[in-house]
Amino acid sequence: MGRTTTLAQTTAGAVATLLTPTAGSHPWTGWTISAGWGSRQLLDVTLVTPNLVVEVSIDVARDAGGRWRHPARFHRVPTDVDVQEVPLFGSGDA
From residue 71, how far is each of 16, 26, 57, 77, 90 by CA, in Å? Predict the structure, then answer.
């Protein structure tokens, strides 16, 4: 689970139709999310069930805390990949 750069309005609308608001517990409950890298403004968020796979690109540069230095960029929603096929981040499976 993560976040990307801001999506174009048409892309955001299309992706939003594929998301389901969470009905129970969520790993990010109680978290605040900034409006942008280095911003102190907080976003209003709707937590969703993690049941959608998206393709992103990232820069491999990391900061001293191990976080990516640059935001992930959304590319597409692959129609041939099910969420159950994706290994958990950090599980060692590639």
Answer: 20, 22, 9, 18, 19
